[in-house]
Amino acid sequence: MAEIIRIYEENPNPKAIAKVVKVLKNGGLIIYPTDTVYGLGCDINNVKALERVALIKQVKLEKSNFSFVCHDLSNLSDYVKQIDTKTFKILKRALPGPYTFILPGSNNLPNPFKKRKTVGIRVPNNNIALEIVKGLGNPIISTSIRDEDEILEYTTDPELIQEKWDNLVELVVDGGYGGNEASTVIDLSETPPVIIREGKGGLEIL
Q1: 148-156 long-range contacts, CB within 8 A, separation 24+
Q2: pLDDT band at 194, cuts 50/70/90?
Q3: 152 exposure class (CB count in 10 Å sphere: 0-12, 13-18, 19+)
Q4: Helix, strand, or coil here: 143?
């Protein structure tokens, strides 16, 4: 049974955030709000949790396109190769915001992702998501729970999300109704940048 916990974005309750962080540290899966759609996430350093997410999404973990949700750009160098000033300026303009940036992966990626040449980085403009990552002390892996074929109601209503995901995750964070438009995905590992998916984030940042 997935527990549901209400957290308000304007002023996230530290005790509630600590509870979510504890679930992640214990290898649990969470569904949580971002600045776009609700996401499914786990601790980036917990291989068993990562494998569970991959199983749910029916993908091979090492070939998955999960994003790394970071609190800010300060620990970017832990996962990304050195980037040039132009690329960094784009990141600074856009983040936090509704974007996923594909960047060249460093040699320090967690074991399941060691062979990946690139990594997707997210810094969502959502206090709940940012406080969870900050409390955990490292990024969480994230993947959208949006249905790829059509936008379904359960992706925006936390109570319906809990009903659908009840036996798959440990915790659903109710941050209010979610959006139904995914992040804009831009590949900055290429020159010039390549727009992979146009979503909520505008392209004027490039």
Answers
A1: 151/180, 155/37, 155/38, 155/180, 156/37, 156/38, 156/180
A2: very high
A3: middle
A4: strand
Taking the chain, what is the end-to-end CA distance rounded to the nearest angstrom? Answer: 44
For residues 55 and 159, what is the distance between their CA atoms, to the nearest angstrom? 23
Q: How many residues does the chain have?
A: 206
- Per-residue pLDDT band for 151 (boundaries 50, 70, 90) equals low
Percent of the chain clearing pLDDT 90 (strictly above): 84
CA angle 88–93–94, rounded 5-degree value:
100
Identify the bridge partners of residue 42 per DSSP, sorted by sequence position.
141
- Integer Cα distance of 162 and 156 in angstroms: 11
Alpha helices per DSSP H over the chain: 14-25, 47-57, 85-94, 127-136, 158-165
In terms of Cβ atoms closer than 10 Å to its own Cβ (0-12, 13-18, 19+), residue 60 is: exposed
Across the beta sheet with 99-104, the strand order is 3-6, 171-174, 30-32, 39-43, 140-144, 67-69, 118-122, 99-104, 184-187, 194-197
